Write the structure tokens for this entry.
Amino acid sequence: MSEKKKAPFRSGFIALVGRPNVGKSTLMNRLIGQKIAITSNKPQTTRNRIQTVYTDERGQIIFLDTPGIHKSKNKLGEFMVETAESTFTDADLILWLVEPTDYIGAGEQYILSKLKACGTPVILVINKIDTVKKEQLFGFIENYSKEMAFAEIVPVSALRGENTEHLKDVLFSYLPEGPMYYDEDTVTDQPERQIAAEMIREKALRNLSDEVPHGIAVTVEKMHERPDGRLIDIEATIICERDSHKGIIIGKQGSMLKKIGQDARREIEMMVGCQVNLKLWVKVKKDWRDSDVMLKNYGFVTHGDDE
């Protein structure tokens, strides 16, 4: 009796692109089965390109989560858009996330023009289908189908996990045969220190009022495991642009900073698997989002600078 032929191992790079707040990071976390990218309901949550890895018996997918593509208002915004658009050509496949709507606005039209020019196969993912009636989806799919010849159109709810396993099947079907780029237990190329900084920023985004979050960054100055391995000491600084913002971040008698720290510490402890002693400071760096030097210091390095 002939032995059943083993399916080829497939691997490749898949970019997640779209406007801010369409759910790219939520979808990536869902697909890899673990929280790596931070999420919030505020724009510009993802600022750098985040690489995560999903491996199973079918193969290995390296996801590239990119900042939302938007009209830049400062050098940080320019960096984010450049980061997102440079990913188009680095990927074997592009997942373009959109919201379920009849209206294809200027932001989507701009992304469409870039996708048509890049030559990489595009799978359209209509996210947040839990917010609309099922019968409405046909109209949305038809509208987008007229704009471009997509490789596939897949409706999902990243938040609820609806149809995301099917999406994974579709992704593997489009990837070429290839090697295992990372060990099978690898889930991200981000160092723990960077993930910890992002988790602190996420908690700040979720707790602070709307006018503050765009102007904050987080740096981790120290992340040191004690000799017995039972505790990790972390010292981090929240950078903001104005003295008034510093007051809001610290809060009355330090209450807001304490809340951000408590929320972040719980999540960092889940990541590292032990107790964390987290100390937070707040510093004002005026207009850091428009300073090349400060952007580089806080880890925002363009492809050109990085090579």
